[in-house]
Amino acid sequence: MSEPRPVVLQLFEAAQEIEAGNLQAAVSTVDQLLAAAPAEGTAVDRLARAFAAALKARLAGDASGLGNLYVDTRDPRDMLKAFEVLAAATPFIRFGHAAANHALLHAIGPAPRVHIIDIGLGSGVQWLHLLDAVARHARGTLAVRLTGIDVPAHGTDPLVRLRHAGAMLTARAAELGISFTFTPVAGLVEDLDLHALAGEDDSCLVVNAALALHHVPSSDGRRDAVLARLRALKPAALCLAEPDVEHNALPFGPRITESIVH
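RESULT FIELD:
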């Protein structure tokens, strides 16, 4: 008997069949893949299953999903826990946070108040390190206001993940004696009124976007529009960290390849 094809190879085959218009063959390949990749299998099995589910939704014409792997998990904090594992495993996350925090503190300078708009707050762990740096550099008098934006959590409480991160940060700021205010905003950044979120006070405004803007579609100009609206806010600094991957504007086949490799 021949060896079964690796599940990732089946993914590429399904993507090629979709791109070629062989939709029935693609449906068959995706169904085989879902049967061969258990939900509780290896990391590669789970990766293949997530992509196969997305391809199946595409084949069915279902564009209603947020593309979030964790919308159906029992605990809305599962996504935060997974990101913490990623941050611990790769220096890319830690370096991005450290570089952004250094640039932000430099941009804030001697200002007594700062308003940080964070696009894609995630677990909020970046701001633990910033609060520590503020305390460490004798800037305990700096009043920090953080507006954390992230996609809504699935279910009846779209803010649940944001509130969890906010409570963690508020507790750390209290330990350090730093004046801290957190505002959670659940929504897609391209749909938000960024000017209203920025407000009109005299705080030093800075913007952070770590591993978030690659989720905003670029082929229809939405990402450029978000960047233009951020520029119009005239922040003292905009810190942007992104992976070297394109899964928006490329043709379907190469886009799938980029996404799977990423």
